[in-house]
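Structure in, sequence out. Go:
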């Protein structure tokens, strides 16, 4: 063998040996394999900088505020969190719950708010409020109390700082430093300016107060939780059990009473808005249209009616601008924009089966439909009134990718909408306040998250975080063995099309038959099959020799109401049918072993893992169910009743949607795990299931995590969790006889 061939072989061997093997331990260690994508990205209101939170190299969970300065093109730390506060941050129970709802984890600067002028910033940190003036380069501590201040913001004209303390609204005059308490009855079940549990968890509304543009008024919600059942919930930790008294609005049970008021900053008086005779309602959104015009969205308990109402606070006159109705439910959105140069507004609706944008005037007259077609708008992103442009993200090209588009505000053009983003994948955008440019957070199956700055034509101005997988990137050593998933679609027996993602195993041999892990979520408002950077565990299992398969069943998002609505009053039915159709498709593939197909999911996915194992045990040999809902009567009103109706009116639907009528259908091995301090999907869901299976004499495996919430945070917890799941599938699928 000549030297040239020997050198070539030696190089190949060296290259192969240099690739590191992906392990579960490495997946949850620092630095993160998929790089450091900054979070909380924002344009400053003056358009001079892009700011974001970034973890430290020596401590990835401690965050500082950074900036990309547009004028000089430099990226630098703007505010060091240690200059504001050092040491342990002891959070109040209310703030812990709020952060859990926001999915915020870490220390240091976790939130920040710009002043409208862009000359100062607010930081809630360690329970107090810090006001940072850019010109001075230093922070002023506005509060120093034992009480915890939350939901901190600067008023629109920059005169005041507002916050919530002990369930009341306070303001600080920045010129005088004087503090004023604006509401006084916040205690016990009464909360002023705060978002109730279901607003935080289900409506994506994290606040309960809103400044008027001229900062003369604050609109706020007064929440009375006294009607809500007070339950005792146990949080089980390693060394103790905490008994938590919590007002939890379970499906079919009473909700909070809610009032909408307008505070006059000068007089301190409150004007209460007439919400109508019906009191069992939701107020999911509030927004000022003008200095004297306040809009709010009114939703009935069934969530089949949503009204956009407008109130003149000077006269007290109120009118309904838009009414949305559905035989199933009306989805909430944030697509409301009041034009500043005319009495018009933009609103989105699913009335024709797909979410699209509409233009109205302030009398409620529909002027024009801005988008149309058998595809969905994701979100209204920005409006440039001067140029007459409307920017939005949507799925016009394929439901598996999100792109940025622009259309004309005045009249529909032949080329509208025009696609701006070009790279195939998922684009999440944040526009400048004047719509002069945008931040793009992008990924696809081969590219971990990248953040870049663009002009409105889509041209990249600069990288904020290129996150390029070069020799200095944590992923580089694993890149050689990285498996690219395949996408496709098939027809279900009922005729609808289902999209899937499939990983072939490492060292794939088409003549062999492989075990399969079906990764599932299956619930509403979620889509898994997208051209985006995926969960590392799916990649890991493919590298361990599994086919990894995911299909988005009916009920999941971004396919229109006809695809989403079949789950109404029938959860756990069509979703299972579509997952079974996915297995039938898998069985047509020559490299799939039809006798070694397992299923894994968490939360709604945990519910789906149970339902597929119980109702279709001949299709799924083994299953892993994480933090599952087992009885929808245990879940909250706003989420559950939206899809299932009120259990007092449709008890049989709830019984059919619970897992218990089907538990005896379990054939194969089942692993259940749950956090023992879960305040979202209560641990009671699993204890009821444990009792049912034991009473049936059915064997199963169980793992509980003391002190852990729904997301099971913590490096060692995650390593244990996923090692356990891998071991379970290895025992029952990979190494099965």
């Amino acid at each position: 063998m000549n030297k040239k061939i020997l050198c070539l072989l030696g190089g190949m061997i060296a290259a192969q040996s240099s690739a590191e093997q992906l392990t579960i331990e490495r997946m949850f260690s620092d630095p993160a394999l998929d790089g450091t994508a900054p979070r909380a990205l924002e344009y400053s209101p003056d358009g001079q900088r892009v700011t974001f939170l970034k973890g430290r190299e020596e401590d990835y969970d401690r965050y500082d505020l950074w900036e990309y300065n547009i004028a000089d093109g430099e990226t630098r730390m703007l505010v060091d969190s240690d200059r504001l506060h050092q040491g342990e941050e002891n959070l109040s129970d209310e703030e812990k719950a709020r952060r859990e709802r926001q999915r915020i984890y870490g220390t240091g600067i976790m939130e920040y708010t710009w002043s409208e002028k862009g000359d100062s910033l607010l930081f809630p940190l360690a329970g107090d409020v810090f006001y940072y003036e850019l010109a001075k380069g230093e922070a002023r501590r506005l509060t120093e109390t034992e009480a915890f201040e939350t939901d901190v913001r600067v008023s629109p004209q920059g005169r005041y700082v507002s916050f919530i303390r002990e369930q009341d609204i306070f303001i600080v005059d920045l010129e005088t430093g004087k503090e004023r308490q604006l509401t006084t009855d916040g205690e016990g079940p009464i909360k002023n300016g705060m978002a109730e549990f279901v607003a935080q968890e289900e409506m994506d509304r994290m606040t309960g107060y809103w400044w008027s543009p001229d900062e003369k008024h604050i609109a706020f919600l007064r929440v009375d939780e006294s009607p809500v059942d007070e339950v005792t919930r146990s949080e089980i930790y390693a060394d103790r059990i905490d008994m938590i008294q919590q007002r939890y609005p379970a499906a079919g049970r009473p909700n909070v009473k809610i009032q909408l008021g307008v505070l006059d900053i000068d007089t301190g008086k409150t004007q209460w808005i007439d919400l109508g005779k019906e009191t069992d309602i939701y107020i999911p959104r509030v927004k000022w249209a003008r200095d004297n015009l306040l809009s709010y969205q009114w939703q009935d308990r069934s969530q089949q009616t949503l009204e956009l109402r407008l109130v003149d606070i000077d006269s007290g006159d109120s009118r309904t601008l838009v009414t949305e109705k559905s035989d199933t439910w009306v989805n909430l959105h944030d697509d409301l924009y009041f034009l500043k140069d005319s009495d018009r507004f933009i609103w989105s609706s699913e009335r024709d089966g797909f979410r699209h944008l509409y233009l109205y005037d302030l009398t409620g007259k529909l002027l024009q439909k801005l988008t149309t077609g058998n595809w969905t708008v994701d979100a209204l992103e920005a409006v440039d009134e001067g140029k007459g442009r409307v920017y939005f993200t949507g799925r016009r090209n394929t439901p598996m990718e999100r792109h940025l588009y622009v259309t004309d505000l005045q009249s529909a053009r032949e080329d509208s909408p025009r696609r701006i983003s070009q790279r195939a994948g998922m684009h999440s955008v944040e526009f400048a306040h004047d719509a002069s440019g945008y931040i793009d957070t992008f990924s696809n199956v081969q590219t971990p998250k990248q953040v870049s700055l663009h002009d409105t034509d889509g041209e990249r101005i600069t990288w904020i975080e290129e996150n390029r997988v070069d020799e200095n990137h944590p992923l580089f050593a694993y890149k050689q063995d990285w498996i690219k998933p395949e996408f496709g679609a098939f027809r279900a027996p009922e005729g609808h099309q289902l999209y899937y993602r499939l990983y072939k195993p490492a060292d794939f041999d088409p003549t062999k038959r492989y075990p399969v892990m079906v990764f599932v979520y299956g619930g509403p408002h979620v889509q898994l099959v997208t051209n985006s950077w995926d969960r590392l565990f799916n990649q890991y299992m493919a590298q361990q020799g599994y086919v990894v398969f995911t299909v988005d069943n009916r009920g999941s998002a971004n396919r229109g109401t006809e695809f989403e609505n079949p789950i109404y009053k029938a959860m756990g039915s069509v979703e299972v049918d579509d997952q079974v159709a996915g297995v039938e498709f898998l069985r047509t593939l020559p490299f799939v072993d039809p006798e070694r197909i397992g299923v894994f999911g968490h939360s709604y996915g945990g519910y789906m893992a149970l339902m597929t194992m119980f109702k279709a045990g001949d299709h799924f040999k083994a299953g892993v169910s994480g933090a599952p809902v087992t009885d929808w009567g245990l879940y909250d009103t706003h989420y559950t009743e939206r899809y299932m109706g009120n259990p007092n009116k449709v008890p049989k639907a709830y019984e059919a949607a619970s897992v218990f009528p089907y538990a005896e259908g379990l054939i194969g091995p089942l692993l259940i795990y749950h956090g023992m301090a879960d305040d979202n999907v209560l641990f009671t869901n699993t204890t009821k299931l444990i009792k049912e299976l034991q009473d049936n004499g059915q064997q199963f495996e169980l793992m509980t995590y003391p002190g852990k919430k729904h997301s099971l945070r913590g490096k060692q917890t995650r390593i244990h969790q996923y090692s356990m799941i891998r071991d379970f599938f290895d025992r029952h699928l990979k190494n099965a006889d």
